[in-house]
Amino acid sequence: MEILHIQDLSFSYPKSKSKALTHVSMTINEGDFVVICGESGSGKTTLLKLIKKELAPIGNKEGRILYNGTEIDKLEQRVSATDIGFVLQNPESQIVTDKVWHELAFGLENLGVPADIIRRRTAETASYFGIDDQYRQSTDSLSGGQKQLLNLASVMVMQPRILILDEPTSQLDPIASDEFIATLKKLNDELGITIILTEHRLESVFPITNKVAVMEKGRVISFDSPRKVGNQLKHNKISLGFPCAVRMFQGLDASGECPLTIKEGRDYLASSFSQSKGKSVAVTDTSFDETALEAKDLWFRYEKRSADILRGVSISLHKGEIYTTLGSTGVGKTTLLNVLSGINRAYKGGVKVFGKKLSQYKNNSLYKDNLALLPQNPAIVFTQDTVREDYAKLLKALGLANQEIDERIADISDKLGLSDLLDCHPSDLSGGEQQKCAIGKTLLSSPKILLLDEPTKSIDAYAKQELIGLLKGLKASGMAVLIVSHDIEFAAQISDKCALFFDGELIAQDEPHRFFSGNNYYTTAAYRISRGFFENAVLTDEIITLCKENYDD
After folding, report:
1. What total of structural domains would you count in the chain?
2. Are residues 543 and 513 part of one domain?
3. Does one domain contain both 73 and 187?
4. Dihedral angle, C-alpha 487, 491, 493, 498, nearest 10 °
5. Are residues 357 and 252 in the same domain?
6. How far is residue 385 from each of residues 174, 299, 380, measured CA to CA in Å?
7. Domain that holds residue 27
8. How far is the CA of 249 from the CAs of 119, 213, 543, in angstroms?
9. What pTM does this model have?
10. What is the pLDDT of residues 465-506, one digit of tens each?
């Protein structure tokens, strides 16, 4: 039965020269699980917010959105509040109270629901989501994954019929992300909730949906089952973000039914390339000469009586090296970057940048042509009304002349594809566009050492490949890059060395092929598919190459 009907929907933001949405039409039935994917800025978030009238952006809208036959704009306030739930991208953005129990009860209290019903619903919801042991905890004490699960529970306590989620796993580590997606499948299977979400990380989402909508420049270019979309968009750049099994199938120009899951990918290899077992990817270690950044035996805690976040961390980062640190949410990876960049100070141990202690860099000289840090939240790096003005202000502070400022802005915007975004207000950009612009600002100061905290958060697969190309170019020029990331596929593609941050330390530091081949959980989908067939194959392209070599033989 139809629950949501979008008919010839177009939308443009005030003063915008182009439309964010153009003639979008789709029908969603009750119980559907729909994932919307596409490039950053393709209109995904705009579409979701227009379905939830309380979040609908200001602008010129044409066309209609009907919920159960009623125009969204004409829905009663109570119906909209209860029937259509919305989970935001940033876990911090949606929490409004100080205690878990109060967060669960907040929406019901605002609707005037009787106290005994509130008590029953919050108790039942907390038990269903497994957060009953956190019921009286402070919301500030929760990890990122726990906060996002609380946001989901706080929406579900309202008993919605449609659940909308805007990149809900973008700030979660791989394990927490998979657990969150599994919870969504449970809600869809057991309660029949209609789910609509946008995602860039499609490995876990793609196989459990029954419909995929692919957006490009404000239009829906495909709306079908995952297998059909996988077959239809073989040569579209959006397919770079599809699950490994789909990309492998596409890369081998295979025919028949497109595999979606790890298991189906392994079955496909077993049936088509079983004779290739034993082939391997050659692993070579890269040697580096000059040390750019060195830290020894770092210990750090935020308060005198609190637990240590860093417990004897040591790391060496060399010129021309890209080093990626992985680990669960809240384990201390961002804290490490803050200590290495001088934002926080370790109470034991020391940090040297090009052989000099941090304390020897006076008057912010550390941040002039030496070191730059991209924070996890890109929004905080902008202070001006447009991206261009923001860039220009930074370059003026660095003492550049007007002509050189213009040249440097043009150069970085060309490299990152930012030309169309320079005159936009930073807060008007999508999450992915904002992230790209923040990376651009970080690179403007021409640092020799670049620290990146979740640089692929919210950016699409194609933009990620552009970022990889840019970082490899910077590496070739001698820049040292230290990355903190939850993006395992990205880490496998870009890194010279990977490490796992656990219990306040960096462990298992190794070349990425050996690192990911030695892991069961923190490893790539490609390795999970190829394990037992090929050795050291941790990237989809490596599987495709080995399969083709076997075919050629």
Report:
1. 3
2. no
3. yes
4. -160
5. no
6. 35, 40, 13
7. 2-242
8. 50, 20, 10
9. 0.87
10. 888 988 998 999 999 999 999 999 999 999 999 999 999 999
